[in-house]
């Protein structure tokens, strides 16, 4: 009678390449979901192989962790005017998987494919400085 390890359950945030039970000596590839790796880093491995052993035990399991989109290789700094926040439920699309919590007077904008915190233009759309010029500052403006 061949040794069987049963039908494996894929770890959280991953999926199996097969559907049935594994028997002694057989292997199966497990792939992490989009936005996850085995290390939680972008450069981390995104799949691993499990194996059915002679004693009926499955070996090789790893966990899939949310990739930290604020860490290397991106090194998102939010222009040093805010804090990068990695999203708890990633999509696998870098730009969608983090946001910038901006300091007062700054707002999150995407420029050249990177999110950052930029000064909010406080100058009114009307012309309160006429005949002068409105000069935008942080959380205020002045007329010159």
Topology:
Layout (H helix, E strand, L loop, with lengths): L3 E3 L7 E3 L5 E2 L3 E6 L3 E2 L9 E6 L5 E2 L5 E2 L15 E5 L11 E5 L3 E6 L2 E6 L14 E3 L4 E3 L1
Antiparallel strand pairs: 1-3, 2-4, 4-6, 5-8, 6-7, 9-10, 11-12, 13-14
In brief:
This protein is mainly beta. It has strands at residues 4-6, 14-16, 22-23, 27-32, 36-37, 47-52, 58-59, 65-66, 82-86, 98-102, 106-111, 114-119, 134-136, 141-143. A hairpin with a 5-residue loop joins strand 6 and strand 7.
Explain what you see.
- The chain contains no helices and 14 strands.
- The protein is mainly β and 144 residues long.
- A four-stranded antiparallel sheet has the order 2-4-6-7, with no helix packed on it. It has a two-stranded antiparallel sheet with strand order 1-3. It has a two-stranded antiparallel sheet with strand order 5-8.
- A hairpin with a 5-residue loop joins strand 6 and strand 7.
- It starts with a strand and ends with a strand.
Keywords:
144 residues; 14 strands; two-stranded antiparallel ribbon; mainly beta
Provide the low-confidence segments as ranges. Answer: none
- Determine Rg (CA atoms, Å): 25 Å
Strand order of the largest sheet: 2-4-6-7
Q: What is the helical fraction, as a range of percent?
A: under 10%
What letter string, H or E per element, gives the SSE order? EEEEEEEEEEEEEE
Major sheet summary line:
4 strands, antiparallel
